[in-house]
UniProtKB/TrEMBL annotation:
This is TetR/AcrR family transcriptional regulator. Pfam families: TetR (PF13972), TetR_N (PF00440). Keywords: DNA-binding. It comes from the Bacteria. GO terms for molecular function: DNA-binding transcription factor activity; transcription cis-regulatory region binding. The keyword Repeat does not apply.
Length: 210
């Protein structure tokens, strides 16, 4: 098996540290120490922490974009479940971005427009998803309901990990944070789902609590 390139090792280690310890608390010295390399060697590949964050944000965009695009093809609850599942997997993999978004945009303002564009794209796709579910008769929702439901779903998916930092940790968590986020996001649909789809929605929600 071919060993990962040094740049990839730096990015993967940085991602793990940012996710575990927070973007603000991890320096290039900390990253170099974790990799057992000199700071000079790290700076040869990435001159600044800003470059590392920018590269990771680019990777997140590439990882997240297909999840957003998949929203447009949702016409059934199974499609919705899969789309949300993939969305939370992507966000969880790069969770420092949304969890530390205030610090990220303050320290790296050049990423603000890209973050806004990604969110706008997510909103449009999620609105199309909700409209598709309404047209398919899965949910009973007016155009205003569709607008607000899309906003709530995007809010939940992007702000979940920030919110979790404000809640006391459970002593014996039965499920992970991303699974619980998916459960709550599916719950947002509950008042709108009609007919037999309602029982199936409850089944999908319950799967996340097992």
């Amino acid at each position: 098996m071919v060993a990962p390139k040094t740049r990839d090792r730096i990015l993967e280690t940085s991602l793990n540290l940012f996710n575990q310890e927070g973007l603000a608390g991890v320096s290039t010295h900390r990253i170099a120490a974790e990799l057992d390399m000199s700071t000079g060697n790290l700076h040869y590949h990435f001159r600044t922490k800003e470059l590392i964050v920018t590269w990771l944000f680019r990777r997140f965009e590439e990882r997240f974009a297909p999840c957003i695009d998949a929203h447009a093809n949702v016409t059934a609850l199974d499609d919705l479940w899969l789309s949300l599942h993939l969305t939370f997997e992507a966000i969880d993999e790069y969770r420092f971005i949304y969890r530390d978004i205030d610090y990220l945009l303050k320290e790296f303002p050049e990423l603000e427009q890209r973050a806004q564009a990604l969110t706008a794209r997510n909103l449009v796709a999620t609105k199309a998803m909700c409209a598709g579910l309404a047209e398919a008769g899965v949910i009973a929702a007016s155009p205003e309901d569709v607008e607000m439901l899309a906003l709530q779903i995007v809010f939940s998916t992007t702000c979940w990990f920030s919110f979790k930092r404000l809640t006391p940790p459970q002593k014996s968590p039965a499920y992970g944070a991303s699974a619980l986020a998916a459960y709550y996001t599916l719950t947002l649909l509950s008042p709108y789902v009609v007919g037999e789809s309602k029982d199936y929605l409850n089944y999908l929600r319950a799967k996340y609590l097992r």
